[in-house]
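Consider a protein example.
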Amino acid sequence: MENQLKSIFSQFKIKANFNSYQELNSGHINDTFLITTDHKTQYVLQKINGSVFTKTKELIKNKVCVSNHLQNKFKNLPQAKIQQKVLCFVEAKDAAFYYKDVAGNYWNTSIFIKDSTTYLKAKNNLIAFEAGKVTGEFLELTSDLELSKITTILEDFHTVSVRYAQYKKALTLASKERINQSKKLISFIEAHLNEMLILETAIQQQKIPFRLTHNDTKISNILFSKQDKALCLIDTDTVMKGVLHFDYGDAIRTLCNTANEDETDVRKIEFNTDFFESYTKGFFEKCTSISTNERDLLPISIKILPFLMGLRFLTDFLNNDVYFKTKHKNHNLDRAINQFTFINKITQKFSRIETFIKTLK
């Protein structure tokens, strides 16, 4: 592995020699490595999963386009400061921002943001507030990015009706054993489907505007300084045209669940109201262009994003685990149970959620 990574790393315009590597395991999809060199600068080398992302070249171009847009927003800052606030990519020796290996895999390299850390879970209200600020800032700074420049990498990524259709197809092909294991979740999906289509209907009726969205705003995709100040969003593989509710709802999904995503003891799952309020305050502080219609649909997005994720986990379980990385036979089923349980916890506090969002401007 080391020789392979060393060879691939050498294909990029980097005036430093490969020293060592460390695998970074936070994601479900891609293979990502931290590369140390004989210089102070370290790099992140990533292999894009071509089975999941068939438009790999376009995906990398999207990331670079968004990076360049953000760098331009901070052009008055020194380059070192920009590299602390923006994920900056390195050109390959052929002037592209990717390298295609002999097996057909696409790789990209970015500058590692030093003195930074990530969290799988928020540890306090400050982390939640900072997460809201940096996500809101990302949406605000990219609100003027020309969406025609961005390729849609995963069609209907957050479209409930499409995810539901995929789930129904998986259900027709699944084994009897896996269907029987999923019975309670199947009933839950049918009981809640209409409510989960509210945001999609608003999009179809053009009640809310399209923006550039990150589409994977879980807490582990935010870099923090050693002083717990949010630096920037990372893992921009899924930057696409969307609505801000995708990013807001997914952030709340991962931030406010008191249990880990694959926790099997549902008694540990609660909705952390303090984190929700702190995150939302930070989000509104930086994302100042939210319309009334957008604000009114934020509460339901908090339910819809875990519903979408639960659908995706259950669909993959029914398909015999072909998409997400799993560690045991029922891993995706456990994840789906977790998400749907979390929706029930949100429902219990939904009135408070709606009231709080209405108080913010």
User: Anything to note?
Assistant: Residues 298-318 form the longest helix (21 residues). The radius of gyration is 20 Å. The chain has a mean pLDDT of 95.
